[in-house]
Amino acid sequence: xxxxxxxxxxxxxxxxxxxxxxxxxxxxxxxxxxxxxxxxxxxxxxxxxxxxxxxxxxxxxxxxxxxxxxxxxxxxxxxxxxxxxxxxxxxxxxxxxxxxxxxxxxxxxxxxxxxxxxxxxxxxxxxxxxxxxxxxxxxxxxxxxxxxxxxxxxxxxxxxxxxxxxxxxxxxxxxxxxxxxxxxxx
Length: 186
Prior knowledge:
Layout: E1 4-7, H1 29-34, E2 38-41, H2 51-60, E3 64-70, H3 78-85, E4 89-90, E5 95-109, E6 115-121, E7 124-128, E8 134-138, E9 144-150, E10 159-160, H4 167-177
Antiparallel strand pairs: 1-6, 2-7, 3-9, 4-10, 5-6, 5-7, 5-8, 5-9
C-alpha cells in the first residue's frame, strides 16, 4: 500500500490520533512531491542488504546511518522527547527516515500553511527537504523503529518556528516559488 497523507483537523486532541477532517481530505504523492517531500516503498525485512536502498543512499549521498527505537521502554524522558519532536521546526539539511517497524506521523506545512499528516509504516522511506516546517509524533501504538540517514556526519539541529530568515528556509521558499518540474515521487 502506498503512503497515506491527509490534511489535518487541528484541535487539542491527543497528538497521536489521526486527526482526519470530516470528510477526510487525502493528499497524493504528487502533492507531497510538489512540496519537496520524497517517498520510496521498500522491503524492511531486507534493509541490511537491499540493493534499492543502497542505490538510493549512493545516488543521494547518504553516507551515514543509525537506528532509533522510539518507545516508552527504550527512551529516557519519553514524553518530553515526544513533545520536543512535535514542536514545529525546520532543519538546515534534509530529514531522511526509513521506517523498519511500527508507525508514526510526520506533519508538514503546505504552501498555504496548512498541516498535512503523513502516516509512515514499515517499509516507508521519506525525505523531508531542508527548510520545510514539520514535526513528528508516534501514533497510539507508541512504537517505531527508524533508520536515520544523513549526508556526512549526522546533524539533527531543530530550529523552532519562526525561522523565515534561516538560509535553509529561504532556499526552500525560493524553490517553492520557482516554476519547474516537481520532484519525482516513488
